[in-house]
Write a structure and sequence with these properties.
Layout lengths: L4 H4 L1 E4 L3 H20 L8 E8 H4 L6 H9 L9 H14 L1 E4 L3 E4 L2 H4 E4 L9 E8 L5 E11 L2 E4 L19 H11 L3 H9 L5 H23 L15 H8 L7 H16 L3 E4 L7 H13 L5 H20 L11 H15 L4 H12 L18 H20 L9 H14 L20
Parallel strand pairs: 2-5
Antiparallel strand pairs: 1-9, 2-6, 3-4, 6-7, 7-8
Amino acid sequence: MFVSTFDLYRIGPGPSSVHTVGPMRAARRFVHALEADGAFFQTSRIHVDLYGSVACTGRDQGTDSAIIAGLSGDTPETADPALLASRAARASADGTLALAGRTRITFDPMADLVFHVDKAFAYHSNALRFTARNGRGEALATRLFFSTGDGDVLTDGETAAPGTVLRIPCGFATAVEMLAVGREQGKKATDMVRANEQVLRSPGELLAHLTRTAAAMHEAIERGLATDGMLPGGLRRPRRAAAQAAALAGTDPSAAAWAAVYATAVAEENAAGGRVVAAPSNGAAGPIAGVLELWRTTTPMADDNGAATFLLGAAAIGQLLRQNGIKHSGCQGEVGVAAAMAAAGLAAAGGATNDQLLFAAERALEPHLGMACDPVGGLVQDPCIARNAAAAAVAVQSARLALRQPAPPRPTLDTMIRLLVESGREMAARYKESSLGGIAVNVVDC
């Protein structure tokens, strides 16, 4: 199975891959289905029912605005907070929206978006049912979607695609295979990933994608460092990245603390609904962006090619983890994986061997094994932002440790991946994508 960097790095609005990006994609898919079935121009009204976690926290996560934007034809890659807000405001003001941006239909957010906080599907916690009606109120089409993580959506009865199946020159599914293929072909992991990508795309297309990805990460950091005030939602959590950067002014710019600040800036942008790069998810967008920014600001002659090497090194680890099933495994599968990817990226940018790259990823992933997802109030704020910051700092130290070891110990990443997946399967659902356990329900008053 081949997992492309185009799937690993996805630009979109925060705060949640599951609750924001997924519903937007579901809305767009429903409109496309109406067009394919010939029901588009007969549609006069669309009603949406939400169930489970996406219903319980949807209003705070911007699910309503995301659905309106998706029905209007917007994509996660082009949407930003201002656009989402304007679409929602227009629908609330006049009770209509422009379906796919072409034909205006009746849509009252208060009546046509129903959050069933007391209902859920037994086999999935994030469900959305779209129903299109004609002018007489008759149902033209209805479709049930599930937001499955990383911005992906499936319809009822649809199974997740196993990934792109094609012949690639440097295929590997385990860390041991990566090392073996690297030795056999005399290639570093970054070159292996690049060669595989070029089966589908030209070198120019790949570099352009990685350059856009790096630019979007940098822009999120800039916005995060330039903005203060309170984050949206009921927690009344202040933005802290700008103050933290000011406190570090004049200190060693290569210190891991700077990566933590950059990661905080991104995580706060995500929490505010800003455009970030999900890597591997919106809730874990901070570590790779923060560590890449540290590399950019402290590396003489840093350029787009160097940033591409960083992102390809991170992708080598991301592909291993995605192929072996990391979804729905708590924060270990999001923040932990992001830390491993960031460490591998920094090691790759520093010229790491394949052994060193794997060692960096192992050391960064290890502290996160077993970590639950337990956001307070269901918001991607506490403890999510702090975890992003800590993961970025761990990634920097792990990469630097790896680069100082000419012959790292035998790689154990495959064992860690198996442990991550097994613990994810055993972990109670309330510790994966909800606010029903852990820190979320055991908050100490300060």
